[in-house]
Amino acid sequence: MTVYLLLGDDEERKARGVEKLRRGRAVEAYDAAATGPEAVVSACNSFSLFGDGPFVVVRNLDAWNAAQKAVVVEYLQDPSPGSDLVLMGKKLGSRERMLAAVKKSGEVHTFEQPTGRALVKWVAEHAGKLGLQLPESVAEDLTTRCSGDKMRLIRETEKLALYVGEGSATHEDVALLCPPDVQSNIFAFVDSLAAGQRGRAIRLLEDLIATGEPPLRLTFMVRRQFQLVARARALLERGASRSEVAKELKVPPFVARKLEEQGRTLDDEALERALALVLDLESGLKGGKDLGDELQVELTVLKLSG
To answer: Which of 133, 146, 202, 234 is most buried by a 10 A CB count?
Structure first.
């Protein structure tokens, strides 16, 4: 029996790792968010009619608490000899028993997704393998629209390759085929508010509402963005580097870069005013005002971009 622990946030490389390890065998897949460890241990102890050992994969390992992980740790003390177990999660503490148990009887691999310029370069290279030319500025546009989500970037690049053929993709192609996700739209929305671009802000607001997100949740996300900008601005003024900002705020590096840019545009007074208006909107959406939700949001946008 071999156990593998695949950690990190690069889901694409982890998926490739699973394909390499399974060597054509059928996969018995489990999601730790929906399945307890007892079912996984039972699967590891089962065999097919042909005597083949099972290849068991557990995703979202982080969903299990210490007691649940302990069930698997106990199993690893006397595992089924013919089975393989792959555990996939984001992170384990250096003192966790499961990490020590896997290191003793198997292999631990960490796959961290590239970020910033490295991710843009990766996207361009991936496009090249598909026969698509993706200029750096277009690759950066696509990366921003996908909020740095590597798995979505793979799907969107494949769509572009099919659409463009063996040519060069443009910003217009990206805009046509790859709609920005909610986070990307939030960035653009706050940018437009900071610049006083009322028309663009309202169009972006309409795009956000069209995603189906409830107005109250959108308001929460906008408030969180302004709060992050304020915290990033304070940290940078104290001499913190961008990487230190990312670590302190627990955001990816590309988000820290965006916060830095927005912090240069919005001063402390503007941030305080914006937060006050958004908090007032939240109160109204929770029943404090008789106006419809979308109308309240639009009126607040007009005030924010004034």
So the answer is: 146
pLDDT at 183: 73
Q: Is 180 helix (H, G, I), strand (E, B) or coil?
A: coil
Count of C-beta atoms within a 10 Å radius of residue 100: 15
Question: Residue 213's closest CA among 201, 222, 200, 202?
Answer: 222
Taking the CA of residue 47 as centre, how many other CA atoms within 13 Å lie in the half-sphere pointing to its CB?
10
Both structure tokens of 158:
């494949």
The whole-angstrom separation of Cα 89 and Cα 4 is: 11
Distance (Å, whole) CA 281 – CA 260: 26
- Structure confidence at residue 39 (pLDDT): 94
What's the maximum distance between 2 C-alpha atoms anywhere in the chain? 72
Contact 277, 304 (CB under 8 A): yes
Identify the residue whose tokens are 């950066």. Answer: 140
**Regions of the chain short of the pLDDT cut 50:** none
Sheet holding 55-59, edge to edge: 27-31, 55-59, 84-88, 2-7, 107-110
Residues 174 and 120: beta-carbon distance below 8 Å: no
CA 285 to chain CA mean position, Å: 28
Q: How far apart, in whole angstroms, are the C-alpha atoms of residue 114 and residue 203?
A: 32
Q: Which domains does the chain have, with CATH numbers?
A: 2-110 (3.40.50.300), 116-177 (1.10.8.60), 182-304 (1.20.272.10)
